[in-house]
Amino acid sequence: MTTAIVLSGGTNLGAIQVGMLRALVEHGVVPDLLVGTSAGALNAAYIAEHGLTADAVDGLEEIWRSLRARDVFPPDPLRLLSALRGRSPSLFDDTGLRRIVENNLTLTGLEDTRVPLIVVTTDVLTGGEVDLGWGPVADALLASSAIPGLLPPVHWHDRTLVDGGIADNTSLAPAITTGADTVYVLPTGYSCARTEPPQDAAGAVLHSMTLLVHKRLIQEIDDYADAAELIVLPPPCPLDLGAMDFGRAGDLIEEAHREAVSVLAVDGGRRAHPSRLIAMHTHPAAPTSPDLVSR
What we know:
Layout: E1 3-7, H1 16-26, E2 33-37, H2 39-50, H3 54-66, H4 69-72, H5 77-84, H6 95-104, E3 117-123, E4 129-132, H7 137-144, E5 154-156, E6 159-163, H8 172-177, E7 182-186, H9 201-224, E8 229-232, H10 249-264
Parallel strand pairs: 1-2, 1-7, 2-3, 7-8
Antiparallel strand pairs: 3-4, 3-6, 5-6
């Protein structure tokens, strides 16, 4: 039996996956393959280097608890002005993210990981998915996390790559095509309990992306439900968190761990219709209108 863990993107909600990974350690899951996109790629790379152990999850938790928005999106008024004038490809540079990667990973090549790793990116010209399993770790992770308009694209040989979530947020395909017959899917969800739209440009882009990719994930799980045993760990719910708020990582980790333990306790997390665990929804606190119907 071959086991894969697929980690979706989600910016600050990537902390949720730490709690899920802890539950998988306690459940005795040993992955043969890790597939990650965007924030999920950063988490996957750390586990790929160290293995899925309690100590590795502790280290990953320390990283998330220490992160702040300025670490990932370093403010630079000149950069912002340049972007607004059309002279820069993004509102922020990726020096902060590169620093996070290089300070916390000793790997240099994707092919050198303890657990095989695939990092999902997108070709910015074609929109096609590009799966990376070799080459510089930092460049691959920056490419997978390069949210268009917010972080700069990464040049990779003859291609220009951006956030993997544009093509396919969780990318079950690499796990399935490499022969995995059991796939644990770790989504990060979205702020399902928000009552007000984001007021800043960066927050609006990030929130819109999380909605888009979560919908795509639901469809992808349905598409691959018969190809392998898919075990989906649902994120905490309800969530009401700004896309640039990195200050609640500890709470997200603890809530995700409790939820994952509860799900895994029943038949190891196996469900007849796994996509239903993460179905799109609203909460009573959300504003409603007779002229607007959620679909």
